[in-house]
Amino acid sequence: MSTRKQTVRLGIIGVGGMGSHHARSILQNNIPRCTLAAVCDINPERLRQFDAMPEIQQFDDSRTLIRSGAVDAVLIATPHYAHTTIGIDALNLGLHVLVEKPISVHKADCEKLIAAHSSKKQVFCAMFNQRTQPCYQKVKQLIESGELGTLVRVNWIITDWFRSEAYYAQGGWRATWGGEGGGVLLNQSPHQLDLLQWLCGMPTKVRAFCHLGKYHDIEVEDEVTAYFEYPGGATGVFITSTGEAPGTNRLEICGDRGKIVIERYQLSFIRNEVPASEFGRATKELFATPQVWNIDIPVQRGAGEHNKILTNFTDAILDGTPLLAPAEEGIHSVELANAMLYSSLTGKPVEVPIDGAAFARMLKKLIKESTFKKKVKKPARNVDMTTSFR
Amino acid sequence: MSTRKQTVRLGIIGVGGMGSHHARSILQNNIPRCTLAAVCDINPERLRQFDAMPEIQQFDDSRTLIRSGAVDAVLIATPHYAHTTIGIDALNLGLHVLVEKPISVHKADCEKLIAAHSSKKQVFCAMFNQRTQPCYQKVKQLIESGELGTLVRVNWIITDWFRSEAYYAQGGWRATWGGEGGGVLLNQSPHQLDLLQWLCGMPTKVRAFCHLGKYHDIEVEDEVTAYFEYPGGATGVFITSTGEAPGTNRLEICGDRGKIVIERYQLSFIRNEVPASEFGRATKELFATPQVWNIDIPVQRGAGEHNKILTNFTDAILDGTPLLAPAEEGIHSVELANAMLYSSLTGKPVEVPIDGAAFARMLKKLIKESTFKKKVKKPARNVDMTTSFR
Questions:
Q1: Residue A263 exposed, middle or buried by CB count within 10 Å (0-12, 13-18, 19+)
Q2: Which residues of B touch A148 (CB under 8 A)?
Q3: What is the spatial distance between Cα B101 and Cα B317, in angstroms, rounded to a whole number?
Q4: Exposure of A41 by Cβ count < 10 A (0-12 exposed, 13-18 middle, 19+ buried)?
Q5: Are B288 and A164 inside 8 Å of each other by CB?
Q6: What distances in angstroms separate CA A380 from CA A63, A341, B18, one per listed residue?
Q7: Which of A138, A176, A251, B242 could be a cystine partner for B163, CB 3.0 to 4.6 Å?
Q8: DSSP code string of B152-168
Q9: Do the bridges between strand B235-241 and strand B249-255 make them parallel or antiparallel, or are there none, so unpaired?
């Protein structure tokens, strides 16, 4: 019999919307070998939901929880800025860490956070649960196997993030430079930005147009259109919005050997019998196009993807299973978001990798010069985060 | 009985690919009350197809045809630059004119051409045959009736214009600054640019990224990504390419009251029960979206749209029927194309209306400084233009 540790004692830091959602998953025994050992929140009201469970230790300060000896690992589900400070603290104290997206608000913070992960024995994971969706898993496989050929063009319209005024009014930190460091790019779209870089790699050039408070009474961006250029010559467009309904979620990836479209988690693949570039050079016809196969690849829409990441995190700690979403990779989606804001606010294209320090200075200036007064209105009842996922 | 003129005697100037296609339509009696009375081409080989039809007068110079008295109207299907010069000549001589797209190569030329249309008795029409497609007619109606509400966002991916090297090699004028004044924006996409402005109006700001000779051995643009801002605050993206296969033709128009998608000439309309902006302000829910109706609007894919424009042109001359595509409106698609090239080549956003004289100067400079030598290779057989339409 193995003498290995058989369960992970998890502490959740931040039990607002997402944190308490994850807590419920664990309490419902959805995550084998993971025990909820502690919770932490600076807001005592939020801790009351755990009052009837004395086996779960309560903390009002993350530093105390991290030093309590009560947990092997923490899940950080606080407002974004604290991901960095709490993450560094937990990593420095030797804990395994699972951090909600975005891993940090800006690139320089990501670098600090990642630098704190010095021991390979520590598991450091990010909650990029969308990577577990079967449709994206399949696309990753099609790209990596070469079925799609060289990347030619990518286009993601992800505008079905409609948010009401009531949503933005629920918390003072929401949709402010000081509280979130951005809007739709930092809160709603990190999953798609992560998938985009996971599937297509990072661009070398970004030009974006971010509209601040266009649809809502907020100071940050609620609509973005971005243009990318990739190292191999491919181009890309990314469009997101919280002001549009019904909105669209459509990802199109075109390669030399075909085209993939994912819309509403359905995957279609049009495959060229001959690569387009080769066909175009060889044919004597003026208007001919390569012959194609129209391929429907059946994929189930996943459910419980958050649980898959929690389970993978647990397995990585106990069995050394490779992570689906190493936190280190979380810097890319943050850098993409930063590059878009930087390009838009300076009115110029931005080279990637970006100058993280320059972006941090710009963000600091935005926070300092902000004159925006948020009208906060508490929601009438508890927030059900399950209706927020895409 | 009416004493009105009962037929239009038409002369076609330029009987290459498109011109001879139109000639065949008329000779097959597809255009009631329109007679092919004359043809003109500077290339005598192209005139030979009419040798067996002595009733059709042949000319090798447009000026002679225009002054011959043999025709009431001309259809101009020459390379684009000559649209302006021949169009002005024909209008000055009192003829009715139907001009192929684009009406001219650049805005300043469009203005000159339009200025020559001084008599309201003359019918001056552009070959924007895609306007007759039932799906676009229906969208126009949905927008004009207010069903879609205020424009929020538009996105057109029209990348199914794949062209082979053989296509570009067929003629020395093709895909050169001096011969066409541009690439995919001037040759393949004018229909979509016209429909875009016809449906959504003109933007006030354009930022575009045009790639010159990216996929083909040409000096002009064969891939374009453009971003637009509209007067009412809406944003837009237009993507086109002749280097991609299988390519996409998908138009999405989002309004405050719903979303229209046209893909492969199929129309879908998702209608919000309450306008999104109103719903977002009124709801107390954080993650709710307006209730919707999913509406399929059956439309036939049209056939013979060129004939519809030719018929409408004839009816306008004989009966005063309003034009579906007045040539004056052709300036907008040209201005959009010019704005995209100008923005890309200067690396800056461009305000619309653009400075037509400044663009003309830039184009002149491109022509003057061009060192590109086109490798021309004649196609083995006659060009069948019917395979070129989208």
A1: middle
A2: none
A3: 20
A4: buried
A5: yes
A6: 31, 33, 66
A7: B242
A8: EEEEEEE------HHHH
A9: unpaired
Q: Which residues contact A237 (CB under 8 A, 6 or more apart)?
A: A154, A155, A156, A225, A226, A227, A228, B225, B237, B239
- A239:B279 CB<8 A: no
What is the share, in percent, of chain B residues with pLDDT greater than 70? 95
Sign of the CA dihedral with A317 first, then A322, A325, and A326 last: positive
Q: What is the pLDDT of residues B35-80, one digit of tens each?
A: 999 999 999 999 999 999 999 999 999 999 999 999 999 999 999 9
Task: Return the minimum-mean-pLDDT range out of B54-63, B141-150, B182-191, B369-378.
Answer: B369-378
**B chain contacts of residue A153, beta-carbon cutoff 8 Å:** 159, 223, 239, 241, 244
Query: Tokens 């906060």 — which residue?
Result: A376
Contacts of B289 in chain A (CB under 8 A): 160, 162, 245-247
Which residues share a beta bridge with B154?
A: B236, B253
Q: Which of B148, B151, B153, B222 to mutate to test the interface with A (most CBs of A within 10 A)?
A: B153
Can you read off the two tokens belonging to residue A227?
A: 């243009």
Question: Which among A190, A90, A67, A48 is positioned nearest to A130, based on CA atoms?
Answer: A190
B119 exposure class (CB count in 10 Å sphere: 0-12, 13-18, 19+): exposed
A241: nearest CA partner in chain B: B153
User: Which pLDDT band, with edges at 50, 70 and 90, does A1 fall under?
Assistant: very low
Over residues A140-163, the pLDDT tens digits come to: 999 999 999 999 999 999 999 999
The answer to whether A379 and A170 are in contact (CB under 8 A) is yes
CA dihedral A176, A181, A184, A185 (to 10 degrees): 170
A10-32, pLDDT tens digit by residue?
999 999 989 999 999 999 999 99
Q: Is pLDDT above 50 for B1?
A: no
